[in-house]
Structure formats: C-alpha cells, structure tokens
Amino acid sequence: xxxVAQLAPGGPASVGLGMRIRADRYAIASASAxxxxxxxxxxxxxxxxxxxxxxxxxxxxxxxxxxxSLFYVTQLSAVVRHRLASLSPWYRQAHAGPQASFVNHCExxxxxxxxxxxxxxxxxxxxxxxxADARGIAVWSIDEALDAEAGGVGHDPAF
Length: 159
Ligand SMILES: [Zn+2]
Fold this sequence. Notes:
Helices cover 13% and strands 45% of the residues. The chain is mainly beta. It has one domain (14-64, 78-155). Strands 1, 2, 3, 4, 5, 6, 7, 10 and 11 form a nine-stranded antiparallel β-sheet that branches. A two-stranded antiparallel ribbon has the order 8-9. 33% of the residues are buried. The protein binds zinc ion. Residues 35, 37-38, 40, 106, 108-109, 111 line the site of zinc ion.
C-alpha cells in the first residue's frame, strides 16, 4: 500500500498522501448527516470508485479490484465537478485554491462537514454500522469517467 496507512486495525478506511483514482464510471452515494453547527439534517454525498478502478502508484498505475469510497478529495476533473454541481451543489471546495479539499456543506447553514466525521467515525454517514444504515444510503450510478485525487479511501464500502 506504500504511503497509505491503515487507520485502525481491520478498519475500513485508509488515509495517506493524495492518490489519483480513475475509472470509466463511478457512483455518487447520498446519505444524511446532522450538521454539528445548526443541528439540522443535511444531505451529504461521496464519490465511489467501481470495482477494477485504477489508482496511481509510484511509477504507474495499479488495478484495484474492490470498490472504494473517496474522501479528502483535492482534485476532480471538470466532468465530475459539473456532475456534482448539478446533483449536489453543497459538495464543493471549502475555499479557493488549488489544494482546497472538496467537502460537503450544510444545506441549511453552509457550514462545512468534516470528511473525518462522515467517513472515519463509526456511525458516520458513510460508515454504516448496520445493514439498515447501509440501506439508507442511496447510490447513483454515473456512466461517465472518474478522475480524482483523494487522500482517503474507504475499502469495499457497504453501500
Ligand atoms: Zn448547519
């Protein structure tokens, strides 16, 4: 796995330096999370790379057989940005700048929601703990190319 460190023993998420991820299709997972500032529920989304996506490694690419959810996203192709802007305008860069992460924002108060809370904490919107939680996450298949750079991946997510 190179520079990618396992967060927790057997844990489902890895965090490391930015990895470029590409595939000929992808999915957008949509869930609900409670905003820590205003306390209201808001929609949150996450990109999901399909089985057999490509991931950059030193000197080239490797094929990853399992699905992966992406977080700490720092780069997105124009096509993916456009798709997200139409489906979920609250997922956007937290501030201007080339290295600004794309994060979900509360649709009520516009506060950014931390990817760590959504993706790495048990019970977080994209860390379901029960089959019922996982079924509450909608997944939209997008028949367009994925090209992204992400600092974190959730391995073989349950949604
Ligand atoms: Zn809020």
